[in-house]
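In the present case, backbone shapes were mapped to integers, as reproduced here:
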Amino acid sequence: MSIKTPTSEPDLSLVIPCFNECENVVLVLERFAELCEDSPVNVELIFVDGGSSDGTLDALKQKISELALLNVIVEQMQTKRGYGYDIMHGVGLARAPVIAWTHADMQTDLKDVFIGFDAYTASKHPETIIKGHRQNRPLLDTAFTFGMQIVTLLLIKTNLNDINAQPKIFSRKFYENHLLSGAPDDFSLDLFLLYRAQKAGAKILTIPVVFADRKHGEAKGGGGSFQNKIKLVKRTFKYIWNLNRNV
């Protein structure tokens, strides 16, 4: 199922995966409409629903109509494949020369995407990646992130800092040259992007971001509980180990 309201050619395509986020996607759309009023950047918004059963699709339809938003695409996947698969599906639909992704849980402020886009356009490097770098984090979360940084450095000789911070922003050319094949279907996608960026000699720039507490629902990836963090670490370690075998 697909909902499309594309109009003029966008400057930036923003992909947002969502799964059972009916209350949060409404807040995302409201924030998006607010930011667009004050920005000259023409943003195409692409939601990829990974098979929600809580009314997320209906909530998106209703709010898009209520706000009279244009340049919004909503795709509902017929099979549940995962975070990485859904994002890459959305990236494949993007029409803009610059592409971004972030989360639907409202822990990340969409304003960061607009700030990141400004940083991207100011960069003169032919291949620039913009990513968030989380500020004021709890000590345990910082320790997990630092631990994963050390693991990637030791196993794949790549220094990747704060891998899962959002947003991620890059060019269509980078996508076509480096991301079209080999992308993982799960939460390892952020690692995959940054790993490919370093191997390609891309310039990785960071912007400071603050992750807020969730207003609704539970984290789907490695956020939230200690158990979720352990699951994310295990999945990420497995992916890094497989990369190491192919380096």
Q: What stands out?
A: The two ends are 39 Å apart (CA to CA). The longest strand covers residues 12-18.
